[in-house]
Amino acid sequence: MTDNSDFKQVKENDLKDLDNICEECKKIDETVSQNLILNSFKVCDSCKTSKTLFPI
User: Fold this and answer.
1) Can you list the alpha helix ranges (DSSP code H) found in 1-56?
2) CB of 41 closer than 8 Å to CB of 35
């Protein structure tokens, strides 16, 4: 049988990643979690666009 405490801890750690705070500009945006799932980057759409146009 599996231990429920281990599953709960993993689930809580995963939810911390979905806090919708951009790593670049530190703003709360809905697109952060979408980009995390699609691109594995925790950035909003505006930061994603700026990084695409001006990759520094």
Assistant:
1) 4-17, 31-39, 45-53
2) yes
